[in-house]
Structure formats: structure tokens, C-alpha cells
Amino acid sequence: MKEKIAHHIVVYTDGGSRGNPGPAAIGVVITDAQGNHIKSYGETIGTKTNNEAEYQAVIFALKKIKALAGKEKTREMSVEVRADSELLVRQLNHEYKIESETVVPLFIQIWNLTLDYKSVSFRHVPRDKNREADRMVNRALDNQSAKLF
């Protein structure tokens, strides 16, 4: 049975690497429109650049929301992705070109995932508004032996 999940979701995403590239992780915090916590995730993703990790976090979030809500409900959902990476948000909002060849397939994957939803928007937030997702990244990197928590 799929989780009861709201029609409008706000998801905070973060990705980071220690070294660039280096050991990397993602952090995802899913809330409803009122800010009520639904789920949080932190996961290591191998050796990546910071930008690749930021993209991987968005991909993980969109896939996880679909898994939690189910395919049918996802088509009725609006998702607002909030991230503290201005580069990521501007690229996803078609304001900046993507120069990195490794990021292009990640961009395409996100584009394809957005088609599963009623709408997906991307919004830049200051780092202090993204603390929980950042905490999940650091927790995953600090506990590399743990895959999910």
C-alpha cells in the first residue's frame, strides 16, 4: 500500500562531495506544503563532483516521491524542489547552459522524471533554509558504511 502523500509536496535536496570529485552523498527531505515532515533520506553515491551530487539528489527525490505516492497519484501532484545550489536551479530552470558532459544525462533524467508529475518547479533557497538536507548529506558521508537511514 502506498503512503498517504499530499497533492503538493515541497522537497529539499542537497548533494555534496568531499573533494571535487570525491566521496559524495545526497540528502533529501520531503514535506507537505505546510512544512510537515514526511520523510528524510541520506545516501552515499560514490565518487562524484558537487554538481553531479546535487543532480543525483533531485533524481532520488523525484523517484522516491513517485514510489511513496504511486504512479496514479503522482500525475496529480505538484512538487516544488528547493535547493541551495544556484547553479543547479538555474540550469533546471533553463537560465544557464550545462557545460559539463557528465551532467547532461542527469539533466535529461530529471526532465523525463518531471513528466510523471502534474508540475515540478525548482527554487533556490539560502543554505540556512536547507539545513536538514545538508545534515543528511554530512551524516551519510560521516557514516559511509550505512547506505540508507
TrEMBL record:
<dbReference type="InterPro" id="IPR053151">
    <property type="entry name" value="RNase_H-like"/>
</dbReference>
<dbReference type="Pfam" id="PF13456">
    <property type="entry name" value="RVT_3"/>
</dbReference>
<protein>
    <submittedName>
        <fullName>Ribonuclease HI family protein</fullName>
    </submittedName>
</protein>
<dbReference type="GO" id="GO:0003676">
    <property type="term" value="F:nucleic acid binding"/>
</dbReference>
<dbReference type="InterPro" id="IPR002156">
    <property type="entry name" value="RNaseH_domain"/>
</dbReference>
<dbReference type="InterPro" id="IPR036397">
    <property type="entry name" value="RNaseH_sf"/>
</dbReference>
<dbReference type="GO" id="GO:0004523">
    <property type="term" value="F:RNA-DNA hybrid ribonuclease activity"/>
</dbReference>
<feature type="domain" description="RNase H type-1">
    <location>
        <begin position="5"/>
        <end position="142"/>
    </location>
</feature>
<dbReference type="InterPro" id="IPR012337">
    <property type="entry name" value="RNaseH-like_sf"/>
</dbReference>
